[in-house]
Amino acid sequence: MRQLVNTKTGGYDVLEVQEVPDLSPGDDELLIQVKAAGLNFADILARKGQYPDGPKTPCVMGYESSGIVKEVGSTINKDWVGKEVIVLSKFKGQASQVVVKEFLVFEKPKQLSFVEAASIPVTYLTAWALMVVMGGLKKGESILIHNAGGGVGLAQLDIAQHLGAVSYGTASERKHEFLKKRGLDYAIDYRNKDWFTELMKLTDNKGVELVTDPLGGKEWKKSYKALRATGRLGMFGVSVASKSPSGGLGAKLELIKAVLAMPTFKPISLLDKNRGVFGVNLGHLWHETEKTISWMHKILDGVEDGWVRPHVDKTFPLEEAAEAHRYIEERKNIGKVVLTV
């Protein structure tokens, strides 16, 4: 089998496809022949040594994949063999084979390709936790989606329309037409304008009920200011700390700088302003499998009902993973980037 290995932390050259012996499932596991694997910003942070939850190098990243069940352990129903599936995994998904427990495997909806299926788990589970579980977004309320053109951004847009919420989104101007066709109500060009000023104009200085922010640093301060009374800020990343394509000391300094710029949310201030603040990190929810499984089933129901519409911007063969990383870091993608195996 082949697997994409982070040989050490650093730039694109540390990624290497290696041949290793084929896997075998344990008694309570399934062996999946991987067809496609999702690529997420966490994978990029791990490559550069900016992801505290990442495994020690050398390592294989990848939280999500899709493929065909080839073999099952002695305690698993043999009916799984041959089924097309979507897989959640704690790393090791970016390979031609992956072994996982049964509860992390879901039958792939027939209308989805393997590439589309691999693009769903991380983006839609993150969006669902941000908006529905913790954000409590309701019909008629408003949401500001930062990086609306990214994979999680488009997933949030699908959910916002499903809930009947009013959506505002920040994205570079070249992505606006696509986002409006996807259903975004108000697009804000964050590169050439101050997004906070534009949002306040659009909302008559009221702000919004929910802001989802993967930026971090001082941007969290602005996002908090953008909340109206009873508003909630959902934080789920620190992408401002990942400007340099290489790892090492420069990457660590970027992260430290972003952390120092983060706001401190004080209880009395939250009380006085009637605002809430929370964080989402899927990597810290592996002990809450019942919850994530139930969310995943609701998302897959959304596929069947037609309101979950995964959009894959571009695919790269596993051997071109470095170019896939570069493509995301240069903010070229609209939607998801997927590795094909």
Quick structural overview:
Helix content is about 30%, strand content about 25%. It has helices at about 40-45, 115-120, 120-135, 150-165, 175-180, 195-200, 220-225, 250-260, 265-275, 290-305, 320-330, and strands at about 1-5, 15-20, 30-40, 65-70, 85-90, 95-100, 105, 140-145, 165-170, 185-190, 210-215, 225-235, 275-280, 310-315, 335-340.
CATH-scheme architecture of the largest domain: 3-Layer(aba) Sandwich
CATH superfamily of the largest domain: NAD(P)-binding Rossmann-like Domain
* Quaternary class: single chain
How many whole angstroms does the radius of gyration measure?
20 Å
Overall average residue pLDDT: 94
Q: How many strands, which pairing sense, and closed or not: the largest β-sheet?
A: 7 strands, mixed
Counting DSSP H or I runs of 4 or more residues, the number of helices is 11
- Looking at CATH, which topology of the largest domain would you report? Rossmann fold
Strand content: 25-35%
Distance between the termini: 10 Å
Question: What is the strand and helix layout of this fold?
Answer:
Elements: E1 2-6, E2 15-19, E3 29-39, H1 41-47, E4 64-72, E5 84-88, E6 97-101, E7 105-107, H2 114-118, H3 121-133, E8 142-145, H4 151-163, E9 166-171, H5 176-181, E10 186-189, H6 195-202, E11 208-213, H7 219-225, E12 227-235, H8 249-260, H9 267-273, E13 276-279, H10 289-305, E14 312-317, H11 321-329, E15 336-340
Parallel strand pairs: 8-9, 8-11, 9-10, 11-12, 12-13, 14-15
Antiparallel strand pairs: 1-2, 3-4, 3-6, 3-15, 4-5, 5-7
